[in-house]
Fold this sequence. Notes:
Blueprint: H1 6-11, H2 14-21, H3 25-32, H4 41-54, H5 60-67, E1 72-77, H6 83-98, E2 102-107, H7 112-124, E3 129-133, H8 139-148, E4 151-154, E5 164-168, H9 170-183, E6 188-193, H10 200-214, E7 220-225, H11 230-239, E8 246-250, H12 253-265, E9 275-279, E10 293-296, H13 299-314, E11 323-326, E12 329-331
Parallel strand pairs: 1-2, 1-3, 3-4, 4-5, 5-11, 6-7, 6-8, 8-9, 9-10
Antiparallel strand pairs: 10-12
Helix pairs in contact: 2-3, 2-4, 6-13, 9-10, 11-12
Amino acid sequence: MNDFSAAQRSRVTMLDVAEHAKVSKASVSRFIGEDRALLSDAIAQRIEQSIAELGYRPNQMARGLKRGRTRLIGMLVADIRNPYSIAVMHGVETACRQHGYSLVVCNTDRDDEQERQHLALLRSYNIEGLIVNTLGHHRDELHELHREMPLVLVDRKVEHLESDMVGLDNPAAVEMALAHLEERGYRDVLLVTEPFDGTSSRIERVSSFKTKIAQRPALRGTMIETGSELAAHLKSFLDTPGPGPKALFCANGIAALSSTHALRELKCNLFEDVGLIALDDLDWYPLVGSGITALAQPTTEIGASAFECLLKRLRGDDGALRTLDFSPQLVMRGSTLGVFR
């Protein structure tokens, strides 16, 4: 049992180990690196014993920089509080760990200056690849990074940035939602989305909604954005006569939460006065009324696939760009019973 304090342990160097084991510093380096087989059993045993007695902990970052490999993957997210981002991040981190990589996550809080600073920070960490889930307003910096390392986009495109992309099949998701609502007897559908800020997935969902509604003559479709006037807009929708039973289609979990709050404020009978279907499948969906019908995104698979795309590029794959669009899963609950109530 040695009596080195934690502070002393943190100051133990490779040279200290070499002197304690009475070997060269190069031998210690071989022992903790990939050349241990070059050492005799006796020297390896002495080094191992000295490391244990001194409490030496190799600086893997320094060793990685020396070899040109840090095994660090960067991930840039727009809003770390968004349940979607958290779930995808978990998928990325799990896949990283399975392949011996560590994940460095930077949150921009949807702030352009934060995004710029974080891109510089990630570069300083010598990351080997980058996964991006932001608006990508700093295109020049992203282009420069992309010249140095592989880059994968998640859920949103960045204009003029040619990169692999992983996300949801938004047109298929919208089609699934409208088909379900029409089958359940709803005829007047209101899409609720967050305000437009350039997020490509948000734009795709609204565009697909307009296209798909036009292809379904039995349905009438309109759209509103979340914000301070949401309750007033919902009241107007509910009070205006339409072609039949009404339903909300919330374009993500944040829109679903805002809409649920507004409906409660309006004292609606959930979900008798209006039906509701929402993208994402958050933990609280089953707890509202008779439960919110969801289009669940395979977030873990999306995150893992983003890393796998990155790993293939790191291993030298220079093939055509990949776009992986995942289909959602319909999870039926009481919010869309419609005429079957």
